[in-house]
Amino acid sequence: FPFRLFPLREHGMNLRARPLTCQEIQAFKKSKEVMQRFIRAYQLMLRFYGINLINEETGELKRAENWVKRFQNLNRFSHNNLRITRILKCLGEMGYEHYQVHLVKFFLTETLVKETLPNVKRSALDYFLFTIRSKRKRRELVHYAWQHFKPRGSFVWGPHDKLLKYR
C-alpha cells in the first residue's frame, strides 16, 4: 500500500492509500522515532511553504527568509490548501493540537492582517479554522478572524452577537 506523509483516518485524493486506524495512531504516538520523523516531515512542509517552526515545544511559527517566493507559490497553486488542511487534521490526530492553533493563526494573520496570502483566505476561514479540535481554541481563532475580517459585516463564520460579547 502507498503511504502518506500525513496520514488520516479518512480517505484522501489517493484512493489507493488506506486510512489510518485508531490502533495505528496509538502505535505511532508511542514511538519516539515515529513522532520525531513526523515533526521533521512537518518542518519540511513548513519550509516548502515559507514558514519556520521556531519552537518545537509550543509550535510557534514565523516566516522563513524565502517567504516572499514561497508565498507566491501558495497564492498561485490552490492545491496547497488541500495539503495544508490534511496537515492540520493530521496534527490533531497525532496529538499536536497546539501546533494546529499556531498554524491556523499564522494563516489568519497572513491572510487577514498582513494580506500577503489573499488566495488562501477562503481556505483558512472555511477549512483550516475548523480543523481545530479544541472548541475553546477554535472560538478564540474565530474571534481573532472576525476582529480582522473586512468588511466585518460580511463575516459568516460565527454569530456576530456572540462574537461581540466574546471574552
Automatic annotation (TrEMBL):
A GO molecular function held by the record: opioid growth factor receptor activity
Entry GO CC: membrane
Annotated ranges, domain Opioid growth factor receptor (OGFr) conserved: 5-163
InterPro entries from the UniProt entry: OGF_rcpt, OGFr
Family the UniProt entry places it in: Belongs to the opioid growth factor receptor family.
Protein name per UniProt: OGFR factor
